[in-house]
Amino acid sequence: MKSVSMNELDMRLATGSPLELSALLPEGIQHEIGHFNIFNIAKIRQTVQNRPKEPYQCRTFYKINLLQGHSEIEFADSIIHLSQPTLVFTTPKSPFTWLPLERQSGMCCVFTPEFLHPTRSGVVLDELPIYKSPEHPVFPLQKTDVKKVKDIFEKMEATIVSNYAYKYDLLRAYTLELIHLGQQLQSTIMLHPNHSSFARTTSLFIELLERQFPLESPHQKVTLRTAKDYADKLSVHVNHLNKVLKETTGLTTSALIAGRILQEAQILLRQTNWTIAQIADSLGFSDFAHFAKFFKNETGIPPGSYRSQTESLNFT
After folding, report:
1. Cα angle for residues 128, 134, 139 (degrees, 5° grid)
2. pLDDT under 50 in the chain at which residues?
3. Which CATH class is domain 6-191?
4. Tens of pLDDT along 248-297?
5. Residue of 183, 184, 159 lying closest to 169 (CA atoms)
């Protein structure tokens, strides 16, 4: 393996200078892992006094950084001052300079696109929101997020030195976990760049609706039953939600809720031995009579008759 001095390595890592990753990796594994490595920044000696800002030079790798310590990141259009733990994503196309203002701690991992090659993970890096977004991927972290990020990096550290036969698959999973954590910190509009606000609201509504099902026990209950319940959860006015869903689906909020409730009622009547009263209670109806009226209005027959008919069909 080519020898690289600690000072040279420190300068290259700190300033983003070009670096052949093969110089950092044991021989014979480059093709297997597509170039991946992890570094504990605190273990790399850094001298920050009188260091000028280094101009951007072309990188050949992607990098995920957990930076802890005062520093500055300068992009073409802005300067970002870092004063708290921050998660930073950089790419071969990210023109910026980084200036540590004091000794840094934290972790970073570097990898090439081949590490998350489509034939391995189905991931095309530049198509991910974290890398497509016009927002700079620099995310100050809350305490709970700092712990999550540290835990992932620590798992990476332990895994890369292990003898586990599938450790690089595991490292890919940890890398994707960091990427998804970053994407969770992005603004909502950036996570759905190709969808209108109506489409996003509809998608969030349907997700809320479906998360209440299936019902696996009579003790499980549907808690969101009205259009207002969903509007409150989505932080929109109920009239706006109705307008959105009517335009995107052709149905009102109440009709969509009723349709999903009916679907679950039919499944429970066909596939469980729950009493009709138990089914009514789990689906959020105040009493048996209310449920029976709803079911007959929607299907034309009472729930008991529906169950009898399906049982006879199954028997036949």
Report:
1. 80
2. 1-7, 9-11, 13-22, 25, 28, 31, 56-58, 189, 194
3. mainly beta
4. 999 999 999 999 999 999 999 999 999 999 999 999 999 999 999 999 99
5. 159
Token match 């980084």: residue? 98
Q: Which CATH class is domain 197-315?
A: mainly alpha
Residue labelled with tokens 């489509």: 118
- Separation CA 191–CA 245 (nearest Å): 21
Q: Give the pLDDT of residue 133.
A: 79
Tokens 């170039």 sit on residue = 35
Taking alpha carbons only, the member of 126, 19, 15, 143 closest to residue 73 is 15
Helix (H) or strand (E) holding 51: none
The ranges assigned to domains in the chain are: 6-191, 197-315
Per-residue pLDDT tens digits for 199-218: 888 988 999 999 999 999 99
End-to-end CA distance of the chain: 73
Are 285 and 298 a contacting pair, CB within 8 Å? Answer: no
Interacting residues of 115 by C-beta distance below 8 A, sequence separation 6+: 33, 34, 35, 36, 172, 175
Q: φ and ψ at 268, to 5 degrees?
A: -65, -40
Q: How far is CA 263 from CA 1, 3, 269, 296, in A?
A: 63, 66, 10, 13
Q: pTM of the predicted model, to two decimals? A: 0.61
Are domains 6-191 and 197-315 of this chain identical in fold?
no
Amino acid at 295: F
Q: Name the DSSP class of 274.
A: -
Going along the chain, which residue ranges are E strands? 36-40, 62-68, 71-75, 79-82, 86-90, 96-100, 105-111, 138-140
